[in-house]
């Protein structure tokens, strides 16, 4: 039986990919960000994860506003990485496991999620920005990806609770697959940021820390929040945080053990990566370090 072995929350800022491609991993401005992903990459290598299920949003690369699905799942052997204006990236196409992807698609529909299924479409920075920080890619990726795109651009958006329930449905789909696969769920986006309008450059570290605490300890509180609440607290684009609830829903209803957290605010986006396993929490860290690296 396939099983979920952990969950990752990650920002998907497009400039992360640009900095990575330009070899800025040791640049003083970028090293704190890239170093923050190393423990997560080491954990994935140690666990030998077979599949990453990515909950992400497409930024009008695969879809556009004339037909923008609420939930969409990719089924295909390969997905090209999109050129978003900075040129083609020196990364192999993202690998897929068609049998597993098709099983999840069928299971979700039978679980009353009317999803869109896509293939042969490029994947943008919503997934491709953090992916090479998590997995090596030469000569190829070590496993496959299930891309699950969530609409956080064109209103009406799915509710935070609906995203959580999507994660629960994905868990049921994974656990009903007969092959022995080790699966990690990844929720992307955020945290606080706004890139347009009167509040351009807005961030709220206090809210970011509270969001991370609630995600771990009280996701029900986050499910009760409206989109306007997320926008007010974290900026217009921080509504992406509802995608982290899909990851959280896929991790079950029991307690979580946070293995690692890195929070780096050096641009307009609070860039964050967090790693969870199911199980009793580790004793909570206090003080300034808790807001940076745990």
From TrEMBL:
<protein>
    <submittedName>
        <fullName>Protocatechuate 4,5-dioxygenase beta subunit</fullName>
    </submittedName>
</protein>
<dbReference type="Pfam" id="PF02900">
    <property type="entry name" value="LigB"/>
</dbReference>
<keyword id="KW-0223">Dioxygenase</keyword>
<dbReference type="GO" id="GO:0008198">
    <property type="term" value="F:ferrous iron binding"/>
</dbReference>
<keyword id="KW-0560">Oxidoreductase</keyword>
<dbReference type="InterPro" id="IPR034939">
    <property type="entry name" value="Gallate_Doxase_N"/>
</dbReference>
<dbReference type="GO" id="GO:0016702">
    <property type="term" value="F:oxidoreductase activity, acting on single donors with incorporation of molecular oxygen, incorporation of two atoms of oxygen"/>
</dbReference>
<dbReference type="InterPro" id="IPR004183">
    <property type="entry name" value="Xdiol_dOase_suB"/>
</dbReference>
<feature type="domain" description="Extradiol ring-cleavage dioxygenase class III enzyme subunit B">
    <location>
        <begin position="8"/>
        <end position="271"/>
    </location>
</feature>
């Amino acid at each position: 039986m396939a099983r979920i072995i952990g969950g990752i929350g990650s920002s998907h800022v497009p400039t992360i990919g640009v900095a990575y491609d330009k070899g800025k991993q040791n640049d003083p401005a970028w090293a704190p960000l890239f170093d923050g992903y190393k423990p997560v990459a080491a954990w994935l290598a140690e666990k030998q994860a077979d599949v990453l299920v990515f909950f992400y949003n497409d930024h009008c690369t695969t879809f556009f506003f004339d037909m923008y699905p609420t939930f969409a799942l990719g089924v295909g052997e390969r997905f090209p990485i999109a050129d978003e204006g900075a040129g083609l990236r020196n990364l192999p196409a993202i690998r897929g496991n068609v049998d597993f992807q098709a099983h999840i698609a069928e299971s979700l529909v039978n679980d009353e999620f009317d999803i869109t299924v896509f293939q042969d479409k490029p994947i943008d920075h919503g997934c491709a920005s953090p992916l090479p920080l998590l997995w090596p890619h030469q000569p190829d990726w070590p496993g496959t990806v299930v891309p699950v795109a969530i609409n956080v651009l064109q209103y009406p958006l799915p509710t935070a609770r609906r995203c959580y329930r999507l994660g629960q449905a994905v868990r049921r789909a994974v656990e009903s697959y007969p092959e022995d696969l080790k699966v990690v769920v990844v929720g992307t986006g955020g945290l606080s940021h706004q890139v347009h309008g009167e509040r351009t450059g807005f961030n709220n570290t206090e809210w970011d820390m509270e969001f991370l605490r609630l995600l771990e300890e009280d996701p029900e509180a986050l499910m009760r929040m409206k989109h306007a609440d997320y926008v007010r607290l974290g900026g217009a684009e921080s509504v992406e945080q509802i995608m982290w609830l899909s990851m959280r829903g896929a991790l079950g209803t029991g307690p979580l053990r946070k293995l690692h957290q890195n929070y780096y605010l050096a641009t307009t986006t609070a860039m964050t990566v967090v790693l969870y396993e199911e199980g009793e929490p580790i004793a909570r860290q206090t003080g300034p370090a808790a807001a940076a690296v745990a």
